[in-house]
């Protein structure tokens, strides 16, 4: 008789433990099966301490975006070399390709003609501001590592970029193609330093006749992955 | 420029905040897990983690996951190997990856197109939201860069995809908006003008990989000028887009 009661009690406990795993447990207050008849004091045989395994969707931090700012020098054709500031955002599509957008600004200097003739300037100060944006693609052509001494290695990549956009200079907006090459070194997993060389190519007629203008720039940038 | 810098700073701070997000613990189910020094196939394998051992997933970059083993060693694991690990519930790790099937069913799309509008170069950024598999609303901003004038076009329209199950999807589009044309200063001074436009077009979208689409389109515009005759323009553009 006593052993039968014990079995009854045990099965009740197991059932209660089993029910605690049921998905509807959170919806309703836990109501075990009706407690078995208790006659007298029976010691608890099993104290079920079953931890419920936590099941949650994977929350993995994806870092496919990269954003940052750059500074460097820009050679505006016929208008000297000057400091350029800009911002860059990129989306890494896979380990080989990324899409990127850049925007930058610089104040162009005097042309040789203006300097030598000593006459009236060709452009006003606001027209002399060289502002551009470009949207395009990049290809990580040479992924690799840079070794610092014998113990440290930093991930790096040399990439090629091609984009289209516009340049505002000398009182007009011009369609601009931008081609470049750069090197990216990751000093932290989320922080990168870039050295970029780009050529902004557009048609311009500020010195009389229409011509293709090449505007080279070299910049150093700091970007963060997020 | 200052606004851009502020945006950059915000994004930067956001990146630092997410760097502290907690990782997910998974158990290796394949014979072993290869840990590389970087997120790419060219980086060397420096550690392996055996079956049954657990690793913590720190972050993901494109197809690569950065993990840390019980000894604190970090490395990058490819998505294919990651899919062979088990989450605490004992199930395979599910990797949320957009695939070919999602192409026809996606909701949002953002893209960039370059082409020609009535003889001028055009650069367009657009965003689209799909109401259902066939019909989407689209907002586009274009920058026109011609030899004689510059301008901007902002349009709002709808696109219809007859076959969302195809890998290469033709679509029809119709919409309206405004155009602002500013003649270039070196020519005879003509005033800047803003007019309403309407367009109808056809195009094609092709699924490439992951979230990535190639897109090309042809549109015919009618510009409702305040002169005696309306102006008609033809535009074609190609570019790429992401869906999410």
How does this structure look, described?
The complex is a heterodimer of chains A (226) and B (244). Chain A is mostly beta strands and 226 residues long. Chain A has helices at 2-19, 112-117, and strands at 61-62, 65-75, 81-92, 97-107, 129-148, 152-169, 172-186, 191-204, 211-225. In chain A, strand 8 (191-204) and strand 9 form a beta hairpin. The two termini of chain A are 68 Å apart. The relative contact order of chain A is 0.15. With 244 residues, chain B is mostly beta strands. Chain B is 10% helix and 57% strand. Chain B contains three helices and 15 strands. Chain B has an eight-stranded antiparallel barrel with strand order 8-9-10-11-12-13-14-15. Chain B has a five-stranded antiparallel sheet with strand order 6-5-4-1-7. In chain B, strand 5 (64-69) and strand 6 form a beta hairpin. Chain B is elongated. Mean pLDDT of chain B is 85; it is low at 15-21. At the A-B interface, strand 1, strand 2, strand 3, strand 4 and strand 5 of A face helix 1, strand 4, strand 5 and strand 9 of B.
Summarize the structure.
Chain A has 226 residues and is mainly beta.
Task: Give a quick set of tags describing it.
heterodimer, A: mainly beta, 8-stranded antiparallel beta barrel, B: 244 residues, mainly beta, 8-stranded antiparallel barrel, 57% strand
Which segments of chain A are poorly predicted (pLDDT under 50) over 5 or more consecutive residues? 18-30
User: How many strands appear in the DSSP assignment of chain A?
Assistant: 9
Interface with most residues: A-B, 50 and 60 residues
Gyration radius of chain A, in Å: 34 Å
Write the H/E string of chain B, N to C. Answer: HEEEEEEHEHEEEEEEEE
Radius of gyration of chain B: 25 Å
| Main sheet attributes: strand count, strand direction, barrel closure of chain A | 8 strands, antiparallel, barrel
Strand content of chain A: over 45%
Given helix and strand content, the structural type of chain B is mainly beta
Number of helices of chain B: 3
What is the share of helical residues of chain A?
Answer: 10-25%
- Head-to-tail CA distance between termini of chain B: 29 Å
N-to-C SSE series of chain A?
HEEEEHEEEEE
- What does the overall shape of chain A look like? elongated
Average pLDDT of chain A works out at 82
Stretches with pLDDT under 50, minimum 5 residues of chain B: 15-21
Strand content range of chain B: over 45%
Based on CA inertia axes, which overall geometry of chain B fits? elongated
- Average pLDDT figure of chain B: 85
Main β-sheet of chain B, in a few words? 8 strands, antiparallel, barrel
Q: Class by helix and strand content of chain A?
A: mainly beta
């Amino acid at each position: 008789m006593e052993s039968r009661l014990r079995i009854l009690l045990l099965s009740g406990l197991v059932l209660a433990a089993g029910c605690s795993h049921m998905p509807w447990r959170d919806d309703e207050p836990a109501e075990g099966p009706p407690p078995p008849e208790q006659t007298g004091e029976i010691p608890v045989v099993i104290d079920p301490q079953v931890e419920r395994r936590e099941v949650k969707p994977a929350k993995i931090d994806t870092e496919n975006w990269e954003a940052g700012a750059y500074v460097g020098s820009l050679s505006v054709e016929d208008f000297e070399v000057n400091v350029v500031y800009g911002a860059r955002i990129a989306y890494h599509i896979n380990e080989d390709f990324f899409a990127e957008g850049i925007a930058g600004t610089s104040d162009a200097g005097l042309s040789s003609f203006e300097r030598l003739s000593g006459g009236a300037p060709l452009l006003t100060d606001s027209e002399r501001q060289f502002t551009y944006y470009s949207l395009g693609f990049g290809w990580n052509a040479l992924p690799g590592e840079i070794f610092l001494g014998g113990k440290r290695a930093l991930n790096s990549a040399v990439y090629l970029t091609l984009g289209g956009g516009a340049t505002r200079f000398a009182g007009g907006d011009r369609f601009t193609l931008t081609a470049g090459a750069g090197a990216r070194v990751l000093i932290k997993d989320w922080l990168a330093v870039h050295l970029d060389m780009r050529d902004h190519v557009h048609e311009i007629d500020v010195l009389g006749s229409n011509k293709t203008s090449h505007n080279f720039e070299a910049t150093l940038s700091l970007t963060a992955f997020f | 420029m200052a606004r851009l810098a502020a945006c950059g700073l915000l994004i930067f701070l956001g990146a630092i905040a997410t760097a502290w997000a907690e990782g997910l613990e998974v158990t290796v189910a394949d014979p072993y897990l290869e840990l590389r020094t970087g997120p790419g196939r060219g980086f060397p394998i420096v550690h392996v983690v055996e079956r049954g051992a657990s690793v913590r997933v720190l972050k993901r970059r494109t197809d690569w996951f950065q993990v840390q083993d019980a000894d604190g060693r970090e490395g990058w694991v490819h998505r294919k190997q990651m899919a062979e690990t088990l989450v605490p519930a004992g199930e395979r790790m599910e990797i949320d990856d957009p695939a070919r099937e999602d192409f026809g069913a996606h909701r949002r799309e953002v893209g960039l197109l370059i082409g020609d509008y009535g003889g001028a170069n055009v650069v367009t950024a657009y965003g689209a939201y799909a109401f259902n598999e066939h019909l989407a609303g689209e907002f586009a901003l274009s920058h026109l860069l011609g030899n004689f004038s510059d301008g901007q076009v902002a349009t709002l329209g709808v696109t219809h995809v007859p076959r969302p199950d195809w890998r290469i999807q033709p679509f029809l589009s119709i919409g309206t908006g405004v155009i602002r044309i500013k003649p270039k200063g070196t020519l005879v001074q003509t005033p800047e003008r803003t007019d309403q436009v309407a367009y109808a077009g056809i195009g094609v979208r092709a699924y490439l990989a992951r979230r990535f689409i190639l897109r090309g389109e042809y549109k015919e515009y009618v510009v409702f000028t305040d002169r005696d005759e309306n102006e008609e323009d033809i535009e074609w553009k190609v570019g790429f887009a992401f869906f999410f």
